[in-house]
Amino acid sequence: MSCNDHNHKGSNCVCDIVKFIDSIQDAQDDMGCPTSCLNPVLGASHSHGMMPNTRVFSLYGKNGDLFFAEFLTATCTTDSSQFFRVESVDDCCAVLRVLRLVSNNMAVCEFEATKQCIVVDLNCFCGIACIEDVFIPGV
User: Fold this and answer.
1) Do the domain assignments include residue 8?
2) Is the pTM of this model over 0.85?
3) Which domain holds residue 67?
4) Does residue 3 sit within a domain?
5) Helix, strand, coil proportions of the chain in percent (round to 5)?
6) What is the Cβ-side half-sphere exposure of residue 99, based on CA atoms within 13 angstroms?
7) One digit per residue, pLDDT tens: the chain, 139 residues?
């Protein structure tokens, strides 16, 4: 099945999961369950005192390669990231915000929203890996 083959039968599991993540980010309900792509609530293991508002995930193409998107840094250079937050989904067309992995002064890894969004056809992906539920200011 190619990326442009829209005649396939059944649903696209990557598309279905991204739609699900979008719906739970909108709901922002917390029941203390372990984090996974299919966990029906955000933030089972939040440690910063802020309720998570984002399920961070990465996507894999049909060839198995990790998907990266570029973003512009504060110093006007480009960088790339494999981490995303879903902003919206319409059918299987999704707007994803590129997230940057940063290390704070206590050597703790955190995610930060970039100003870069990318529109993707979720039918072009065959894998998704959920990383962590986090609070990201300003999203």
Assistant:
1) no
2) no
3) 13-134
4) no
5) 15, 40, 45
6) 28
7) 334 454 445 567 899 999 989 888 876 544 444 556 877 778 755 555 678 899 999 999 999 999 999 999 889 999 999 999 999 999 999 999 999 998 877 767 889 999 999 999 999 999 999 998 888 988 8
H, E, C per residue of 72-89: ECCCCCEEEECEEEEEEE
Q: How many domains does the chain have?
A: 1
Query: ∠8-11-12 over CA atoms, to 5°?
Result: 90
Q: Is residue 106 part of a domain?
A: yes
Q: Is 22 helix (H, G, I), strand (E, B) or coil?
A: helix
Take residue 1 and report the two structure tokens written for it.
């099945």
Residue type, 75: T
96 belongs to a structural domain: yes
Inter-residue contact 61 to 109 (CB < 8 Å): no
